[in-house]
Amino acid sequence: MKKDRIYALLFSRVYPLYIKKAEAKGRTKEEVDTVIFWLTGYDKKTLQQQINNKNDFETFFAEAPQLNPNVSKITGVICGYRVEEIEDPVIQKIRYLDKLIDELAKGKAMEKILRK
Questions:
Q1: pLDDT tens column, 1-26
Q2: Which superkingdom heads the taxonomic lineage of this protein's source (predicted)?
Q3: Regarding beta strands 81-82 and 77-78, do their DSSP bridges make them parallel or antiparallel, or are they unpaired?
Q4: pTM of the full predicted structure?
Q5: Can you give the three-state secondary structure of 18-49, one letter per residue?
Q6: End-to-end CA distance of the chain
């Protein structure tokens, strides 16, 4: 995916896809939100503001209250790339979120997803 194209993706358009993916595997919207809150530091209100503002992913992560300090524990392959080796910080954060949603959809325990 071209850098400019991924940067232009609106979080508000991808968020329902995260929920759909999780729900298709028996998980819930609340679990998706928990993963997002853990990664970004957003809460229910500030996440909804990001959705309402139709922010792109670059803005979504730039305005995140605090990236979780355990983010470096997210490892593995997503979309053919090792997340820990992605050099572009915005794309890496997007892939971190993708990886966490994948783990959720695959039935991994929330405790493991949140790197506890």
A1: 455 678 788 999 999 999 999 999 99
A2: Bacteria
A3: antiparallel
A4: 0.92
A5: HHHHHHHCCCCHHHHHHHHHHHHCCCHHHHHH
A6: 32
Q: Measure Cα distances from 56 to 8, 53, 76, 108, 111 in Å.
A: 6, 9, 25, 28, 29
Q: Which two tokens stand for residue 110?
A: 């929330």
Number of domains the chain contains: 1
Residue 114 DSSP SS3: coil
The CATH number given to whatever domain includes residue 44 is 1.10.8.290
pLDDT score recorded for residue 28: 97
Query: Residue 69 corresponds to which amino acid?
Result: P
Q: What's the per-residue H, E or C state across 4-21?
A: HHHHHCEHHHHHHHHHHH
